[in-house]
Amino acid sequence: MGGNIMLPWIMIRKRKLREGGGSLATPPPCSYQVSKLVVQKFGAVTMSGELESLEQVLQGHIPGQEIKEVWRILYGKEPGILDLPDVAVNAASQGQFELKGFILEAATEQLRRPRIVRVGLIQNKIQTATTEPVVEQIYALHKRIATMVEAASTCGVNIVCFQEAWTMPFAFCTREKLPWTEFAESAENGITTKFCQELARKYNMVIISPILERDESHGDVLWNTAVVISNTGAVLGKSRKNHIPRIGDFNESSYYMEGNTGHKVFQTAFGKIAVNICYGRHHPLNWFMYSMNGAEIIFNPSATVGELSESLWPIEARNAAIANHCFTCAINRVGTEHFENEFTSGDGKKAHHDFGHFYGSSYVSAPDGSRTPGLSRVNDGLLVVELDLNLCRQTSDKWNFKMTGRYEMYAEELARVTKADFQPDIVRE
Amino acid sequence: MGGNIMLPWIMIRKRKLREGGGSLATPPPCSYQVSKLVVQKFGAVTMSGELESLEQVLQGHIPGQEIKEVWRILYGKEPGILDLPDVAVNAASQGQFELKGFILEAATEQLRRPRIVRVGLIQNKIQTATTEPVVEQIYALHKRIATMVEAASTCGVNIVCFQEAWTMPFAFCTREKLPWTEFAESAENGITTKFCQELARKYNMVIISPILERDESHGDVLWNTAVVISNTGAVLGKSRKNHIPRIGDFNESSYYMEGNTGHKVFQTAFGKIAVNICYGRHHPLNWFMYSMNGAEIIFNPSATVGELSESLWPIEARNAAIANHCFTCAINRVGTEHFENEFTSGDGKKAHHDFGHFYGSSYVSAPDGSRTPGLSRVNDGLLVVELDLNLCRQTSDKWNFKMTGRYEMYAEELARVTKADFQPDIVRE
């Protein structure tokens, strides 16, 4: 699949990577300091009409002592600031993307050394008009991501995750098949996987690459799939989206079905990770099963728009981190995507050409309930967060949610719920 | 049990209720209007050093257009303001408790009329020193609650819920048995249940009364139990706390065990309700099973303190409302309770005499992700919220979380998890 378009692009890309990448084989040492909470900001505001950042508003208006309390109540323990190297700051400035760095710390233990991992969350706009040839659209996104991953490598990122269906516009709102299904690729050897394998080897980085997958080996069907690529460059495996929305313009069930890869966890050189794609974040049992399979970090690559979900966005991934004693990384696409053919949205409104505003705001939550500020609501961005994975077990030993979970009781109750003759337990006078 | 203390108190109480209650048999009509969000505030600030209200800080500092966006992102769709009658406002002023009223609306349907219910959430301090005789402590709390429930009735409240273990200080931090276990009562015919039955009949109100229960019929053991009393005055049933904490000063597992009443839902005249007590809010499966049994409103009477949980408080009950397409009512105790004998907290700090600050902040979440502002962090309060229960099914039909829940898959996975030979599904290179 994709043989026709692979060659020219791979060649161009290889040349580009050779030109820019040589000096970064060894990332510069990144010193850091835990300091007063300051939201770092790089890159200009590129749109008006949308609030750029919730946290900027809070910090811009609420004075000293009160902001500390507001922050504590809203966001938990204040994260440290990760001092990022100049080369990354300059790359962000030049590349016009936001760059933020935070630290989520754990206590010191006697028997385990800190297990420090840096995760990178990338949110980005599509790079060309949706009317451009498919190959050009993919090419432009690969190019954009190559730049941002290079910056991530200079920040010492170990695991990077891109947004849902990152190689394409989120065109499922249109219900059209062509050209959108042409963006689908093999998870094992499509051009995007090969591209990511090269980045992974080059930067010694685990890469989570959520794509539209075409499974030629099983009837040529489509899936919404995250490909997990080891820092060695090997394809470690794939995790398919478990829950498919049928809401608003998320007509995804016309394109692909509920995933059949279960709740796999991937043992990487930097910790055990899992991928809960987009709509799966609304399902607490989905997060739970990834956690029970051992995930220390659950990534949630997403694509979601303002009016529908923005007030849910800060709640769900964070609740999952709390409930499951793990880290969660919520990544949302950013910007507004325009489509040539008008479409309706089942909401009584006139036909239109866009899905609404993808509000970005990617963030990381810790098991202790603390979270980082989000990336911008309007700009491309790279969020680098240094985690100490020891915090997972420390929080579990403190709060004991799994010890007190009574899963035998719920296994029985859940089995009853799924029976056709299930009768709710309702007490009447 | 309790025979010695029942008589004098019942007599005093009956006299008091006769004196004050006659004119309120028919609550005055409550007109309301959906207006610009204004946080209503009654009653003075009674403590310094603690932030009184998160929402007051936000609204006090962030200007017009920005606060609307901040509110939308943080709190979802703006609730309407419920106009409360003067008699209630005066009672709150005189009784020195905060009174707030909001409306969470649903769309109009063709085949169902709006199913309007008013819930009342009451948070309060203990009313006497913890060294006072047990009977005096209970008496003072009954008296306080009688005043607040009377105010609730003038606001047209149909279902009222009190905080966890409302008839006593939250003394489990001490690990002492006497006198604290003397606060335990029969759920079916203890003095507190009789008190609540009288209120229920008088005001035509469903009352959720979370108490320390002593079960004489089963070996005289203790439970943490919510008694649900119908608006007819009948004891509809009881719901025991399903998950018991072992964290910080919540030494509750020394006093009572995990509940054995399952996930009962109570069909009342005002909708189907359930009670998820305190620590159960950390367990998504607990909320889920109440919802699968049909609960439209899940009450979460709690007792929790600042440093430990305050950043989790706005997340968990709200996530449960979203994930389960129902309303949730989170109620926390307020104030700081002092105990005569010093105790330690397993945190390396010196012995001390209090549990920390119970931060109140009771609030209601709607299935669409919107929520009301919270009550004060420092004062007693009554939060009256008018709900249209039709919003539950409307949100379910829109978001489809139960339709897309794949419960058969999870029932199988959960059953596997509970087996001794369960092996996590981990992919290695």
UniProtKB/TrEMBL annotation, chains A, B:
User: Where is the protein situated, by its record's location annotation?
Assistant: Cytoplasm
Instruction: Using the record's annotation, list all stretches that form the CN hydrolase domain.
Output: 117-389
Q: According to its UniProt record, in which pathway does this protein act?
A: Amino-acid biosynthesis; beta-alanine biosynthesis
This entry's Enzyme Commission designation comes to: 3.5.1.6
Its recorded name reads Beta-ureidopropionase
> What is known about what this protein does?
Catalyzes a late step in pyrimidine degradation. Converts N-carbamoyl-beta-alanine (3-ureidopropanoate) into beta-alanine, ammonia and carbon dioxide. Likewise, converts N-carbamoyl-beta-aminoisobutyrate (3-ureidoisobutyrate) into beta-aminoisobutyrate, ammonia and carbon dioxide.
Subunit arrangement? Homodimer, homotetramer, homooctamer; can also form higher homooligomers.
| Keyword line | Cytoplasm, Hydrolase, Phosphoprotein
For biological process, the GO terms are: beta-alanine biosynthetic process via 3-ureidopropionate
Enzyme category, top tier: hydrolase
Species per Swiss-Prot/TrEMBL record = Pelobates cultripes
Q: Which GO terms describe its cellular component?
A: cytoplasm
Which molecular function term from Gene Ontology is one that the record holds? Answer: beta-ureidopropionase activity
Keyword match Hydrolase: yes
Among PANTHER family, the record links this protein to:
BETA-UREIDOPROPIONASE, NITRILASE C965.09-RELATED
Q: Which domain of life is it from?
A: Eukaryota
Q: Which family does it belong to?
A: Belongs to the carbon-nitrogen hydrolase superfamily. BUP family.
